[in-house]
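ok so for the tutorial part 2 we go from a plain amino acid sequence to predicted structure tokens. step 1 is just haveing the sequence, like this:
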Amino acid sequence: MSQQTPSLSIFFPAYNDAGTIASLALVAHMTARKITDDYEVIVIDDGSPDHTGELLDEMARHFPWLRVVHHPKNRGYGGALRTGFETAGKDLVFYTDGDAQYDPRELLELFKAFGPDVDFVNGYKIGRSDPLHRIVIGRAYHWFVRMVFGLRLRDVDCDFRLMRRDVFRKVVLSRNSGVICVELMKKVQDHGFRIAQVPVHHFHRTYGKSQFFNVPRVARTLMDLTRLWLELVVRKEHLNGPGAKAA
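step 2 — the prediction. this is what the tokens look like for a chain of 247 residues:
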């Protein structure tokens, strides 16, 4: 990473987020300018059937700082994140969701926690602004994966993260589902990267609805978590395989 102010990639995975993504991209642009002159804002349109893609393409014609990547078909949340990490080209990489439940301006708080002794800054929700059933399920999920995977985090599924791009010389991601967040944090922790944790606000969803909270998707998530547990906890493949040698 540069000894001067680091360059910055900001990206959003977006699926049916036409009502929020334009304002998020603009706020990200204004926030990035407070950190560095060398930045990019990227949106991954994950095969949205609404007009998310058209809206983003129109914005990109007017704003040279915006890059748009389209998935012809939906690849899932993990697939969108993997494309974002692969596309980001700056020293630091920040991502959050395209549904506006987090405020990109709070990236400034994560950046304050960054330094020579920190590789990764993980946000944690001050309070969850969701319906009661989502809060209960979310807390149960958090404590379950934290215990089973041995994660030392206050909030496993807070998708508000800033990291060095060099992290991905060792961390190789494979999941296309939402369990990619567990995969990411388990591999970051086990490879010894230094993690700071910062509180951030979580806001009520005003547009669209969650793609996660339905029975078939929860069942697939549990199956994927089981396979991930066998790979990362039992066999420790990430410490012995190609990802461990990539650096």
